[in-house]
Amino acid sequence: MIDPRLDHLLYAVPDLTAAVAEFGRRTGVTPVAGGSHPGGTANYLVGLGPAAYLEIIGPDPAADPATRRRAAELELLDVPRLAGWAVHPDDIGKAVREARDQGYDPGDVEPMSRRTPDGRLLEWRLTRWDEPARVDPVPFLIDWGATPHPASSGLPQVSLVAFGATHPDPPELLAWLGALRVELDVQAGAAVALRAVLESPLGRVELT
Fold first, then answer.
1. Which of 4, 151, 203, 206 has the most beta carbons within 10 angstroms of its beta carbon?
2. What are phi and psi of 130, to 5 degrees?
């Protein structure tokens, strides 16, 4: 069960260059540079079909160390991890209000942006994802507005075969997901974790 409104998966890494090379080695697909974010992070992207993608996010090697607040959390990771995901509701403001009515607060909707390698400014709105290294099985919400969706930019492709989470208290997690009206395979587990299975030219690859 993969939610049809899945926008992207976030794969958090401590070393962006090394992680991109390792992804290419495991899958036979080379991610493409997405751009840089305020806070000292940068990303590489791989398509998961026409309307979703995988974002590999890590410290931006070119960023000024004084501006790398968000990147500092990623640099402390021992290994890469599948840390989060996003969905794109039809009306982000309405989705936030409905979730709050159901007892879950996804946070305020705030603007974000990044520069592409060719200098274009991409702008969107999202409910904040403040800790890029922390695994969060509850998705944040995103609205690209007038910005073309990254998945429409001719990204190299893999297929998302399965996506799910483990959680010590599945009913609690399912209640939060229900407040957002999103679907996710949830299983009981000692630790909070996300798992994605990708179909690639070199076979199936699991990200956790």
1. 151
2. -85, -20
The tens digit of pLDDT for each residue in 144-156 reads 998 899 999 899 9
**Rounded to an integer, what distance in angstroms lies between the CA atom of residue 37 and that of residue 198?**
26
In this prediction, residue 69 carries a pLDDT of 63
- The reported pLDDT for the residue numbered 118 is 82
Of 183, 181, 185, 205, residue with least CA distance to 194: 185
Contact criterion met (CB below 8 Å) for 175 and 184: no
For residue 124, pLDDT beyond 80: yes
Q: In sequence order, what are the residues at sequence separation of 6 or more whose Cβ sits closer than 8 angstroms to the Cβ of residue 133? A: 12, 73, 74, 76, 77, 81, 83
**Alpha carbon separation from 178 to 107, 155, 206 (Å, rounded):** 16, 31, 26
Q: pLDDT class for 9, splitting at 50, 70, 90? A: very high
- Intra-chain end-to-end CA distance of the chain, in Å: 17
State pTM to two decimals. Answer: 0.93
What's the maximum distance between 2 C-alpha atoms anywhere in the chain? 46
Written as one letter, the residue type at 61 is: P
Question: Which domains, and CATH codes, for the chain?
Answer: 6-157 (3.10.180.10)
| Nearest alpha-carbon partner for 42 in 24, 56, 31 | 56
40: which 2 tokens?
Answer: 């000292």
